[in-house]
Amino acid sequence: MNILEKIVETKKVEVTRQKKVIPVAQLKKYPGYQRKCNSLKAALLKHNSTGIIAEFKQKSPSKGEINFGVKVEEVTKGYADAGASGLSVLTDYEYFGGTLANLAKAREVNPEIPILRKDFMIDTYQIVEAKAFGADVILLIAACLEKELAETLAQKAKSLGMEVLMEVHNAEELTKLNDFVDIVGVNNRNLKTFKVDVETSVELAKFITERFVKISESGLADTETIHYLRKHGFKGFLIGETFMKTENPGEACRKLIAELSFRSRVLGREIC
């Protein structure tokens, strides 16, 4: 059993338990369930968008503890103030140290910016849960979902006014895309070896149609890489560890965006 399979098995147990703790009927009474979602797709396509989707992630299976010395409210507000186009908040606790409480806190201090719930979605219950706790976008990881289930989950999210980001790692997983997906994220990290290669994004971009907004994930640490990926049609860049491993993630985000803007001016073109 690889790490992804192990995570999914753990998630099945968690979801079964959570359904009993907070039933769907109760989730629908949460204030977040009634709010209108912010569009990440629109934010990424906006004129002069930075394209940065800044992530709050405190640990991971591959890196271990990253940063438990910061507060989600301060970090995500720092990201938003720095000019990030969107936020990503991990809600998986067992493997990533995330919580739904972190999602709710990020939403409270950042009412206008799109927020992605980063987790391993395997049940429509989690979609309702995401909406109730303030998410605008949900993540579907193609590697751990059958095509039919991926479509069911995506359709449920769209019915609640949310957007769908489907993450892929190879060309085979692109066959799981469906009409309810808004954004395709190419994860440059090999799930079997954990090796990161940005060329994964470049290669898969050739097979992703223009109807989907393309974003790149993992291994993004400098403006040169971001500009390189923009040339291949990428509009979004999900960055977590690069920011989170610093003492002040919001400031690290601000510096990267400032460098990105400067580099764009030097090249004689606008930021997007």
TrEMBL record:
EC number: 4.1.1.48
Pathway as given in its UniProt record: Amino-acid biosynthesis; L-tryptophan biosynthesis; L-tryptophan from chorismate: step 4/5
Domain Indole-3-glycerol phosphate synthase, chain residue ranges per copy: 4-256
Example GO molecular function: phosphoribosylanthranilate isomerase activity
Record GO biological process: L-tryptophan biosynthetic process
Pfam families with a match to the protein in the record: IGPS
Record field: catalytic activity: 1-(2-carboxyphenylamino)-1-deoxy-D-ribulose 5-phosphate + H(+) = (1S,2R)-1-C-(indol-3-yl)glycerol 3-phosphate + CO2 + H2O
Name the record gives this protein: Indole-3-glycerol phosphate synthase
Source species of the chain: Tangfeifania diversioriginum
